[in-house]
Amino acid sequence: MKIIIAGAGSVGRYMADQLLASGHEVTLIDNDPAMARKTAGGKGVAVTLGDACELDTLTRADAANADVVAAVTGDDEDNLVISLLAKQEFGVPRVVARVNNPNNEWMFNDMWGVDVSVSTPHLLTALVEEAVNVGSFVRLLSLEQGKARISEVTLATSSPAVGRSISELGLPRESTIVALVRDGHVVVPRGDTTLLTHDEVLVLTAGDAEDAVREVLVGSKQTPAGS
Asked: pLDDT of 61-71, one tens digit each?
């Protein structure tokens, strides 16, 4: 895939290296020549010097042919403008944006051209909640403007799911358990997999299935952390 990353800070450079190693065509955009020099340009990452909030810069980076644009600068306003231009002016199929200030997360939606937003403060808070509260239903990531969510719960001894196989849980059709972490190892869940105390369960939910899934795995009306 052809991927454009706006923002050549530590986040953008790391993403560029990882995506390049996975075989993607990567272009980094930054208006700071010093930041651009730190990039992996010599390793195959293309660099476009300029302001990604301007059409001319995105044009030079060949945004019209990009499969994904990731706006990961340290400025939320810039990330929103980049996302909107990528979607409306260049028709980029997938736009991912970084949220720096959690108070701004509500703006990162399809109205601004954002397909997926990632709020690092919210994610870190959720992971801390999960680490200290066994049995807490923790929302890790929202997808498609909140239409789908990935959540995690470490099963307490009181969980109604403990000792039952996944096929016996009666989970809603709009949900699925995507992974288990047991004793530090990832377990691929199957219908006959029996859930145990202290299993870390990652579940994907869509629509309004989250409450029902929480009831199955936690057995309470607890409000999900990270929401």
From this structure: 999 999 999 99
